[in-house]
Input
Amino acid sequence: MSESEIDAVVFDVLGTLVDEPAGIRAGMRALAPSLDAPGIERLLSLWQQHIEGEQRRVLDGARPYLASDALDREAARLVADAAGVDDPAAVAAMALSGRRLPPWPDTVAGLARLAERFPLIGLSNASRTALLGLNAHAGLRWHQALSAEDARTYKPDPAVYRLAVAVSGRPPERLLMVAAHAWDLRAAQSLGLRTAYVSRPVGDPPTSADRFDLYADDLADLADQLDKADGLSR
Output
């Protein structure tokens, strides 16, 4: 696959470009400073299970759509109750921790490098408001940032990926979807998008049955591979 075959690059954000668990852990330490590491990990699991479970209920039609902000507030309340915290201000701050996620070390430079050659589209399950906050906090560079809120559903619903296709104005096969989650890439692939898996410690690794177009160690490696492929095609 060469650069000339790609008109835009679409990026998952949570987990792929920012370290979501690290940001949530920081919020929990602020919520309850006395928590030890195992306690934080238990609460992180509680948070993640709630978010993933409720998004799945929305996808299954068992619950009306709620933006990620509302789900974060629910998760923060569960975590606070489990930690024995009953301070409304502290719980509200915990709910906003998903907007204060650190970028991976290669993210900012990698996006800047790719942005010199391609239009970059962020495509996230985070709400529009949350996406604005986390983009600013992490210093993410986009030409367009799209929220699943615009489709009133969550990835991997095909409607979310169609947002990127519609905004690009290009056929799906001219878009490269980049993610650290194999489930995300499978869904994009089913709509005809090209796919690139980027390895992250918190991602969902491919199985032996997955066949993605590119596999990269980080964004620098992804850019190198696109450079090499383009050079070979000339």
